[in-house]
Structures are given as C-alpha cells and as structure tokens.
Design goal:
- This protein has 75 residues and is mostly helical.
- Helix content is 65%, strand content 0%.
- Helix 1 packs across helix 2 and helix 2 packs across helix 3.
- The longest helix is centred in the last third of the chain and has 21 residues.
- It is elongated and about 55 Å long.
C-alpha cells in the first residue's frame, strides 16, 4: 500500500526512478524491522513511514556530498 506512494514522494524530492526504487526498498525493510518500535500515540503509520523515507533521502544526499578519499592527493 505505501511503497508506490513512498517511491512517488522520493521522486518528487528529486531522485531518479532507479534511485527512488532502491531507496523505497530500504525504507520498506526498515519499516519491517522497526515495526515493533512504532507507537500510535506519537504518529500515524503514514507519517512514520514518510518520516523514515525523508530521513533516508537526507542520508543518501549526505553520502553524495561526501568527498571520496584519494590516496594520491597531497593535501
């Protein structure tokens, strides 16, 4: 139910189709693993899932910005 919506959300955030698909899979695995920690009193299921998706997108963006280590760089 949520996977196509999460993928669309990630694509609206600027990810390409393949990247959005991959990140959606990661989000759904996280939801499966962390389902026991979900608390209905704090948020709805949809809010919780989309927050996980948002955080995964931020993590992916940070990985893209991180400079690769170059052992030949004199600095």
């Amino acid at each position: 139910h949520f996977a196509p919506r999460v993928k669309g959300y990630l694509m609206k955030l600027g990810l390409a189709n393949a990247e959005a698909e991959e990140l959606t899979q990661e989000v759904m695995v996280t939801v499966w693993r962390k389902a026991g920690t979900f608390d209905r009193r704090q948020a709805s299921v949809g809010t919780w899932i989309f927050r996980i998706a948002r955080n995964r997108r931020i993590d992916a963006f940070r990985r893209e910005l991180r400079a690769d280590y170059d052992p030949d760089d004199p600095v």
